[in-house]
User: What shape does this take?
Amino acid sequence: MRMRFARGSIIAIATGLVLSGGAALASGTSPDVGVKFKSGVEAPFAGTRFDGAVVDGKVYFLGFRLLDNTTDGSIWTYDIKAKKYTDTKIDMPVPISNYTVAVLKDKTGVGLYTFGGRNNDGESVDTVQVFYPKTGKAMVVKSDPWPGMTPSDCVSLPGTGVAVVGNKAYAMGGMSFSTSVPPCVDDQSKEVWSFDPMAKAGKRWSKEPSLKVARGYISPAVVGGDTIYAIGGDVNDAGVLTAVPTVESWKVGAKKWSGAADLPQGCDESQAFAFDKGALGGTITLAGCGQWPNALPDVMQYNVKSDKWSTVGALAEARRNQAGMNIGSAKKPQLMVLGGYNSDGTLVLSTSEIGTASTKLFGAPAVAAHVSAAGGHASAF
Assistant: This one.
């Protein structure tokens, strides 16, 4: 079912809140490269638990969750140069939330893939889908459903935990929930799977070395073209999610994952940006720190060489489950985040922010929340 938005249905509420950086401010570390965020172009929709990907100067969003927990499968674009959002009038075959977009080249061309997710009925599904920007075609890849399972044999929800290396997607961790439909159990997975879009139909998934720590809602980043970092995430205890500071790294092809320095605090459901060169070269920036059902604005940065984290800035608005993509370049990065839940998970945002390298530290920002008019509450998955 397609759901449309009028501009007037998005309400701007000045909360007057001033958020501190939380526990990360007490870490005592100094930044490597500061990152300053400022307001970007507001979207004509308020969405959460979604992602975007850049192809040929446009960002593509493959649907999103609304405040009342319903799911809209509408495919939107954002033209980076024109600074304009457009509804393509195309829907994903199965509207989902809780996904990451993987840009992969297959025998048809450049496709935007999603693996699993949560559908409008509250089910964790194993559906693999692809959208081709050049032709505007969206389809289900029926031959190769998502194989990830939790130890209790429930379909796992990988959430944000998908990275791309060498034209393969790597999906890591995941969760299942007793509140899903049909009921399952509260659990988490260590599984890691790779997806090869050029392999034969029915043979595209391969099992990879498992994570050391089972968790879901991981924020992944790729360094050096071949090393994946699995940053933070959640463990699920009877439906209560606890954000963890755990960070692991894996060089694709290695026999096992390695440990890395923990985050200054537990973070989940965020966006991580890695750079090998340019203004942010040799670092990973974590744009915001989710701690379900809340969010902190803290922006943290990892120095790959020194294996250390530091706090380098703050989002203008605390948010989690936001979309994230670099709309600049490696030399001049522009870290765009859009939407997500607000600081306490009661509102869904329509605002965007753009982060750029800065030599200045940050102050605690005032928060202006932009929300959809629909009622509802943030769910755990």
